[in-house]
Amino acid sequence: MPVTAIVRFTVPEGKSRADMAAAFESSAPLYQGVTGLIRKYYILSEDAQTAGGVYLFETRADAERLYDDAWRAGIRQRLGAEPTVEYFESPVIVDNGTGAISNAA
Predict the structure, then answer these.
(1) Distance between CA 54 and CA 76 in Å, rounded?
(2) Predicted confidence (pLDDT) per residue in 71-98, tens digit
(3) How open is the CA angle 49-53-55, to the nearest 5 degrees?
(4) Structural domain tally of the chain?
(5) CB 101 within 8 A of CB 92
(6) What residues pair up with 86 in beta bridges, in sequence order?
(7) Do 67 and 85 form a contact (C-beta atoms < 8 A)?
(8) Which CATH number does the domain housing residue 98 bear?
């Protein structure tokens, strides 16, 4: 079953929206070709105090494989923040781009 992972972290003091956008853009290539990763959305709260990503994976095992100690260390190194990860089953997915509705059942 597809899994959605939501990653969040507190934006470090002194980081602007532009800083975060640049950090997101520079890290985007790291996610190309990740096994089982279907899609990733970078997120930044309206007050620019919380950031992270919403990821859609083929399986939870794929997600857990990505979020290892090296990945966490990379977030700490690049952004100076400790990420949290939440997992959600995604039994139905609506894709308005393709007009498709996927059902995991």
Answers:
(1) 18
(2) 999 889 888 889 999 999 999 999 999 9
(3) 165
(4) 1
(5) yes
(6) 6
(7) yes
(8) 3.30.70.100
Ramachandran quadrant class, 36 (left: phi over 0; alpha: psi -120 to 50; beta: rest) = left
Using one digit for the tens of pLDDT, what is the confidence trace for 46-68? 999 999 999 999 999 999 999 99
**Which pTM does this prediction carry?**
0.90
Looking at the chain, which runs of residues are DSSP E strands?
A: 3-10, 37-44, 50-57, 84-89, 92-95, 100-103
CB 2 within 8 A of CB 93: yes
Residue 43, C-beta contacts closer than 8 angstroms, at least 6 positions apart: 51, 52, 53, 54
Residue with tokens 């919403």: 54
d(CA 29, CA 87) in angstroms, rounded, equals 23
1-50 pLDDT, tens digit per residue, is: 999 999 999 999 999 999 999 999 999 999 999 999 999 999 999 999 99
Which residues make beta-bridge pairs with 44?
51
Domain that holds residue 97: 3-103
Query: In what helix (H) or strand (E) does residue 31 lie, and over which residues does it extend?
Result: none
